[in-house]
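Query structure, 271 tokens:
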């Protein structure tokens, strides 16, 4: 989420008994499945929408490297004043708007990598739901911070709040030791996601001290915390069968949407 103001050894064979008995050759190691659109359709849909919105903006005169605040507002970026005056859709549209080519490239690279890891655990619709819910959650927290800071001018845009949300839910889901994945591999994957989230949060907080670029840290934190929260009720049903797991997903995501709506209503009545 970016923010602008007006101013990413050997092999042991079993013994042969009796001597001369036939020894079957060990099976070849499993081949890594190639990455394709069919392997993670939800992730590719999200990446495609983000890229299509960026191309659409550029074709309509927006600079691919330095869009103006007015241009970002026009194409759906979040702004506290506009949201509080009825344009709540910006909480969602802002997750598909980016501030330049570098911004979208880094966000899509992170979304692609996390999506290919997370979609087998969530499913295509689950991945899209997590992206939307955590992206909106991050923008809601950003809205709250802007209201408290009396900042009604800045705009926020980007998928990074949702990317942090995906990282958050993966950290929780990968803690399930009943998954059919070797424990060392689970630990490695989970550690890599934690390192990704921690490093990027530190970088974002560092920009508060050295404001080379402006990063909407509240959107990152909001997305990450909401992702962690979404993962908690899903873990007990991950290995209980597809039907039960999908039912738990629907209940969890519907409940999350309701809570976000209540949070937005509370924010709207702070004034």
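Result returned for the query:
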């Amino acid at each position: 989420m970016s923010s602008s103001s007006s101013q990413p050894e050997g092999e042991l064979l079993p013994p042969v008994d009796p001597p001369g008995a036939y020894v079957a050759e060990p099976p070849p190691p499993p081949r890594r499945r190639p990455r394709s659109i069919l392997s993670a359709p939800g992730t590719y849909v999200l990446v495609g929408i983000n890229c299509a919105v960026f191309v659409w903006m550029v074709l309509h005169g927006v600079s691919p490297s330095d869009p103006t605040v007015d241009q970002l507002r026009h194409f759906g970026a979040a702004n506290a004043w506009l949201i509080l005056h009825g344009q709540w859709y910006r909480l969602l549209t802002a997750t598909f708007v980016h501030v330049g080519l570098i911004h979208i490239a880094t966000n899509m690279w992170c979304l692609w990598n996390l999506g290919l890891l997370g979609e087998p655990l969530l499913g295509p619709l689950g991945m899209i739901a997590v992206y939307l819910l955590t992206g909106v959650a991050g923008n809601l927290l950003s809205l709250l911070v802007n209201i408290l800071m009396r900042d009604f001018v800045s705009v926020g845009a980007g998928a990074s709040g949702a990317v942090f949300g995906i990282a958050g839910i993966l950290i929780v889901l990968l803690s399930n030791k009943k998954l059919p994945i070797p424990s060392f591999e689970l630990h490695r994957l989970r550690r890599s996601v934690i390192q990704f989230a921690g490093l990027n949060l530190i970088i974002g907080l560092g920009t508060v001290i050295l404001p080379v670029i402006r990063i909407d840290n509240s959107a990152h934190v909001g997305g990450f915390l909401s992702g962690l929260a979404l993962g908690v009720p899903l873990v007990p049903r991950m290995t209980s069968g597809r039907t039960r797991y999908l039912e738990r997903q629907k209940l969890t995501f519907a409940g999350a949407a309701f809570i976000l709506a209540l949070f937005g209503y509370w924010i709207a009545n702070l004034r």
